[in-house]
Design brief:
By secondary structure, the chain is an alpha+beta fold. The chain has helices at about 45-55, 95-105, 110-125, 140-150, 170-185, 195-205, 220-225, 230-235; strands spanning about 5-15, 20-30, 35-40, 60-65, 70, 80-85, 155-160, 190-195, 205-210, 215-220, 240-245, 245-250, 250-255, 260, 270-275, 280, 285-295, 300-305, 315, 330. It folds into two domains: about 5-235, P-loop containing nucleotide triphosphate hydrolases (Rossmann fold, 3-Layer(aba) Sandwich), CATH 3.40.50.300; about 240-335, Beta Barrel (OB fold (Dihydrolipoamide Acetyltransferase, E2P)), CATH 2.40.50. The protein is about 25% helix and about 30% strand. Strand 1 (about 5-15) and strand 2 (about 20-30) form a beta hairpin. The longest helix is centred in the middle third of the chain and has 18 residues, at about 170-185. The two termini are about 45 Å apart. The protein binds adenosine-5'-triphosphate. Adenosine-5'-triphosphate binds near residues 17, 21 and 44. This is ABC transporter ATP-binding protein.
Length: about 350
């Protein structure tokens, strides 16, 4: 089946208590694209997903699938597959029963159901588990069954609401990789909601960051990280070092602990840089601070360095030399790595 584009046009959804969950939201999701919706609790992620699914009707605006207005269609007529955080499997049916449920409802012949079930069990790595009871499965296996069940009727669109949130960290990471692989293989339009920026970065072709029912930024993971639209987005993806600008110097600006290169004509009150762009150097560098802690993270170490501001600087360094706590460290940064942001 060819993939379907999705368009939201000026969608608004308020609840009876007056909460505006989605506010004049317009966006286009390309056919075959995986869109991650990221944002703090209550920003409208799930409501947006439910508007796409047909589980909520917008008060204003339209939802279009492949250019066709589906705003008035309920979920069962939109051809979408859904996966929820809590699996929502039928406990009285075995694995195969759960997977083919939607096919039975659609009166698909038994032989075809069995063929499709075998295919899906293989797709999600559960070959030979068709007769297992749901309570005999691990959390990760249950989520794979939920995914297979959603995919069984060959929906045009796959919608996932925090699909990995109920899993422990290790399993979550593994299933994240598997899900990414699967989404690429299926090349279907997929939208998933997550709190987890790592998940959004790893799985989303683009990420929609929401703030109070609106778009804070819609961009590729790379663009979001490298050119965040504002402070809200920047603080939501990755760690950010914040520098209060104290004044001008010959080549830049004065900050706590030293200076920063800055060539902008305006003098912002705050500048930022990412932890991996601060470099430890034996030369004088730009800033000098005292090491508060060094945390080994495998491929790199994360250092906290006190330069006399409210928050210590975070430095990610691939250099795995062990430094002494309290040691004085020189830090340097490339001019293009220092940026300002809209508040
Ligand atoms: P979370 O990450 O906590 O799941 P979210 O970003 O998915 O949050 P939504 O579930 O879309 O947010 O909710 C957006 C806002 O709408 C919240 O303020 C929420 O309390 C409110 N809301 C959601 N559903 C309803 C409802 N059925 N009735 C009233 N208010 C609701």
């Amino acid at each position: 089946m060819s993939a379907t584009s999705i368009r939201l046009e000026s969608c608004r959804k308020a609840f009876t208590d007056g909460t505006v969950a989605v506010d004049d939201l317009s966006l286009e999701i390309q056919a075959g694209e995986t869109l991650a919706i990221l944002g703090p609790s209550g920003c409208g992620k799930t409501t947006t997903l439910r508007l796409i699914a047909g589980l909520e009707r917008p008060d204003a605006g339209q939802v279009l699938f492949a250019g066709r207005d589906v705003t008035a269609l309920p979920i069962e007529r939109r051809d979408v597959g859904m996966v929820f955080q809590n699996y929502a499997l039928f406990p009285n049916l075995d694995v195969a029963g759960n997977i083919v449920y939607g096919l039975k409802v659609r009166k698909v012949a038994r032989a075809e159901r069995e063929r499709r079930c075998a295919e899906l069990l293989e797709l999600v790595g559960l070959q030979g588990h068709g007769q297992r009871a749901i309570h005999e499965l691990s959390g990760g296996q249950r989520q794979r069954v939920a995914l297979a069940r959603a995919l069984a009727p060959q929906p045009r669109v796959l919608l996932l609401d925090e699909p990995l949130a109920a899993l422990d960290a290790q399993l979550r990471e593994r299933l994240r990789a598997e899900l990414g692989q699967l989404l690429r293989e299926l090349a279907m339009t997929a939208v998933f909601v997550t709190h987890d920026q790592g998940e959004a970065m790893a799985l989303g072709d683009r990420i929609l960051v929401m703030e109070r029912g609106r778009i804070a930024q819609l961009a590729t993971p790379r663009a979001l990280y490298q050119q965040p639209a504002n402070c809200f987005v920047a603080s939501f993806v990755g760690t950010l070092n914040t520098f209060v600008v104290l004044g001008r110097t010959a080549n830049g600006v004065q900050v706590n602990g030293g200076s920063l290169p800055w060539t902008g004509s305006e003098l912002p009150s705050t500048l930022y840089c990412r932890p991996e762009h601060l470099r430890i150097t034996c030369e004088p560098g730009h800033m000098r601070g005292r090491l508060l802690g060094q945390f080994f993270q495998g491929a790199q170490s994360r250092l906290l360095v006190d330069v006399g501001s409210d928050q210590p600087l975070t430095v990610d360094s691939a250099d795995d030399r062990l430094l002494a706590p309290g040691e004085l460290i020189n830090l340097a940064v490339e001019p293009q790595r220092v940026f300002s942001l809209h508040v």
